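Entry 14. Ran structure prediction on the chain below.
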Amino acid sequence: MIGRKRHADGSLVGLSNKNPKDDYSVYEVQLNDGSYSEYTAFWSSLTTVKHSMPIELAEYAIANKINDEPAFAWSVTRTFRRRNNIIKSTRIPKKLMKYGIKVPGSFEQAYAFDIENGKQLWTGAINKELRNVIVAFNLLEMTKNCQLDRN
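Output, structure tokens:
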């Protein structure tokens, strides 16, 4: 840290205060690569950080070996469990089988299954479904207006 950042007239940037919550000082910092940057430190309550950035806070607690402290002990484990459950729920299984039948994930896969087994079961099911829903996709010419049935 080089020191407090100053305006062109020499006055300090930001407001200094003894209470860290009210200190808005801006500091000039020299980084390892020799470049300069400016940083502002701010204080926030632990509760606010737990709610706004729970995963980052849990990772910070583990990295600094404070995850056994009372403020973190229960939340770190819970946060990672919740994160892992969210990740698991978003995964798409590569092969999905139901009742011993391979269920396709796309039209291409359905047609490939039909070619593989030499039957037209998935193709027939897709065609039947399209016949039932095609009325919902009746495209009108650009000159015709859509009539709504309000009954």
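The chain has five helices and five strands. Will compare against last week's run tomorrow.
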